[in-house]
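User: Please fill in residues for this 162-position structure.
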């Protein structure tokens, strides 16, 4: 039921790929080719946007429950936020879909959140800093936040990740 519209990576023997492509398209999917030497990196990308997204959502749920919410409340907050974020990425791409304290350059909030997370769960604090570096790059490309504020945030992350 969910297969139509699915994109499938193909690599390998050109004749076999052509046969698979025809079958996949008949089933409603689409295909693209991946070179054999790029297959592992491609697959790692799928892990990030699928498997690790689940792990990231779990980290967020853990923060909500740490803040006193039960799991059901945490999911009720998480799912609309995640869906809205995915919709924004689809509409605007990642640079312009980024919102929140790093997009605004709110260094005080970011450093306060980071310190609170590090006190409660150093692994989640480190994850916050590591992912924050990607958000910093997106914020710089977005061009809305003050460059000096973003540099101070970068330094706070570097202290954790050094």
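Assistant: Residues filled in for all 162 positions:
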């Amino acid at each position: 039921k969910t297969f139509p519209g699915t994109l499938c990576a193909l690599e390998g023997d050109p004749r076999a790929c052509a046969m698979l492509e025809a079958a996949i398209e008949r089933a409603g999917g689409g295909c693209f080719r991946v070179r054999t030497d790029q297959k592992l990196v491609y697959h790692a990308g799928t892990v990030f946007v699928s498997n690790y997204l689940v792990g990231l959502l779990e980290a967020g749920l853990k923060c909500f429950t740490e803040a006193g919410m039960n799991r059901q409340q945490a999911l009720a907050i998480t799912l609309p936020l995640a869906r809205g974020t995915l919709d924004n990425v689809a509409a605007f791409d990642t640079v312009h879909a980024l919102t929140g304290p790093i997009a605004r350059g709110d260094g005080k909030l970011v450093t306060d959140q980071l310190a609170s997370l590090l006190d409660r769960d150093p692994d989640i604090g480190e994850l916050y800093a590591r992912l924050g570096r990607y958000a910093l790059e997106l914020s710089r490309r977005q061009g809305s936040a003050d460059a000096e504020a973003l540099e101070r945030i970068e330094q706070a992350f570097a202290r954790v990740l050094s």
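For context: The longest strand covers residues 7-10.
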